Each structure stands twice: as C-alpha cells, then as structure tokens.
Amino acid sequence: MTIKESVRELTEINKEIARLTKELAKFRKQAKVKNKEITDYIVSRDQIGVKCDGNAFIVDKKTKPMAKPKKLKEQSYIEIVEKYGIDNPQEFLKEFLSAGKSDKEVTKLKIQKL
Hints:
Elements: H1 3-44, E1 49-52, E2 55-58, H2 70-83, H3 89-99
Antiparallel strand pairs: 1-2
Helix pairs in contact: 2-3
C-alpha cells in the first residue's frame, strides 16, 4: 500500500468516525430522554421499579462525590497542610502536587487542510 492510499484511507476513516460520533450523540440524547421518562414514571407512582419485556427497571438513589472547583480544592489542601504545622503551606503544596506529575514525549500525526 502506498503512502497516498494510506492517507486517503485515513481521511475516509476519520470522516466515518465523525459521522458515527454525530449519530451516537443523537442516540445518547434519545436514551437520556427515555431514561428520564421512565425514572419520572416510577418516582411519580412511588414504586421501586417496573418490569417490562423480561427486564426490571429500578430507580436507585445514591450520593455521588463531585469534584470541587480548583480554587476550593487548593484552599482545602492548604488548610490540611496548615493543620499539620508545615511551614509555608502554599510552597509545600505546589511542590507536592508537581511531584506527582511527569512529562512524556508523544509523537502525534497532525492533519491540516490545505
């Protein structure tokens, strides 16, 4: 296979991926709407769930941990560091967080329209 054929095939594959992504987005949106309709139906009837076509649809309520905004997260970290009596908590936090990161060299093919 020549490089031209490889480039053309890659372009076609990328177009197909884009098309399928758009189609999938529509299906996800429809699924979300139907999911909400079923959940609202079950909740409005004060039921645990419903059975239909050999499937059980059950509403499960649970708490989900959410990420804090960056500023609040940093403030919480600093408060914890200060609590344990570390001098210069902001500098310590900066150094501590950077210790968990590393750089990795990556080779990536960029495609530009001409």
